[in-house]
Amino acid sequence: MAEYPSEVRIREVGPRDGFQNEPEVIPTAEKVRLIGMLADAGLKRIEVTSFVRADVIPQLSDGADVLAALERREGVSYSVLIPNERGLDNALEHRDRFDEISVFLSASETHNRKNVNRSIAESLEGLMSVLARARREGLRCEGVVATSFGCPYEGAVPRDRVLEIAERLREAGCAEVGFGDTTGMANPRQVSDFYAHARDRLEGVELTAHFHNTRGQGLANAVAALGEGVASFESSFGELGGCPVPPGSTGNVSSEDLVSMFHEMGVETGIDLEGLLAASRSVQEVLGRPLGAHLLTAGPIDWDGQG
Ligand code: ZN
Fold first, then answer.
1. Does the structure show a pLDDT above 80 at 250?
2. What average pLDDT score do residues 139-144 get?
3. How many CA atoms lie within 13 A of 159 on its CB side?
4. Of 80 and 2, the one with more pLDDT
5. How many angstroms separate the alpha carbon of residue 261 from the centre of ligand 1?
6. Rounded to an integer, what distance in angstroms lies between the CA atom of residue 74 and that of residue 62?
7. Other Cβ atoms within 10 Å of 55 Cβ, number
8. What are the b/e assignments for 128-142, b being 16+ CB within 10 Å?
9. CA distances from 94 to 63, 71, 164 (A)
10. 9: helix, coil or strand?
11. What is the dihedral of CA 74, 169, 66, 73, to 10 degrees?
12. Which of 230, 209, 228, 207 is nearest to 218 (CA)?
């Protein structure tokens, strides 16, 4: 039997990865209320917004207002996604309101070009100065490598290229590197193989798994990562997030499905599943449509057999 970590850390990315993919702009007060519910449920890491250009992602144009309004809970680490120097400038006006930043690039040239209109080399160069400044500000830094397990435009993405990018991010001061399966192309065997190599090459870095459930393989991939000792995951409540194309694609692996599975496996998360489900039901109401998380339909397993 595989040796699994006895506990894992989960970063809730729904307020960023999820809300940015919604066609409607969610009112700031609702975002702040939902972030509060997530913190109440025991989520200790929450990505609350990003500082991207408002004309590119209007859904998150209220990032500064969200930061200003959220009620900071003790023991909760709030993070923001930073695309570039300009985004960092804007975020730093609210320096006391968050603890971590995430920066991102793609391991696929085509995807990176389509996403941020830069080559990988240009992205890395830009991120070096962002990370240096963020570290001087005492911010913990995560580097996220999108399309780590496959690219919808290029197909296979060489593992070594992904790991080289991760090494550059480590050199630039990232304490954590997240590997994103941005469009749900990963499979469990590939994930096991990937993290076994990542573990060897990236000693001293927290390795994070960010899976999308686009093809229903998010949880299987999470177990594969767990089996390689990965103890840090990113997920979205309700299964929010994902990609607008093709229509109907589902989002990130759902936080409640992930938490339920981990608890059933005896892996601690520190998260109260009922509290998390309350937040997911609430965001469902705000959005006015059912979300994809299985637990929202089935509820937690009841071992006492009360139905
Ligand atoms: Zn994602």
1. no
2. 98
3. 12
4. 80
5. 20
6. 23
7. 7
8. bebbebbbeeebbbb
9. 10, 14, 33
10. strand
11. 0
12. 209
At 64, list the tokens: 């500064």
How far does residue 242's CA lie from ligand 1's centre (Å)? 6
Cβ neighbors of 224 (< 8 A, separation 6 or more) are: 188, 189, 191, 192, 195
pLDDT digits (tens, 9 = 90+) for 175-213: 999 999 999 999 999 999 999 999 999 999 999 999 999
Average pLDDT, the chain: 95
DSSP 18: I
Positions marked active-site: 243
Amino acid identity of residue 24, one-letter, is E
- Supply the pLDDT for residue 306: 77
Termini Cα distance of the chain: 31
Task: For tokens 């994809």, name the residue.
Answer: 292
| Tens digit of each residue's pLDDT (9 = 90 or more) over 147-158 | 999 999 999 999
Helix axes 159-171, 188-201, angle to 10 degrees: 40
Report the alpha-carbon distance of residue 221 to residue 149 in Å, rounded.
11
CA 213 to ligand 1 centroid distance, Å: 10
Query: Phi-psi region for residue 33, left (φ > 0), alpha (ψ -120 to 50) or beta?
Result: alpha
Using one digit for the tens of pLDDT, what is the confidence trace for 54-87?
Answer: 898 999 999 999 999 999 999 999 999 999 999 9
* Domains of the chain, earliest start first: 13-298 (3.20.20.70)
Please tell me the predicted confidence (pLDDT) of residue 245: 45
Q: Are 47 and 76 in contact (CB under 8 A)?
A: no
Total-model pTM? 0.96
Rounded distance from Cα 252 to ligand 1 centre (Å): 5
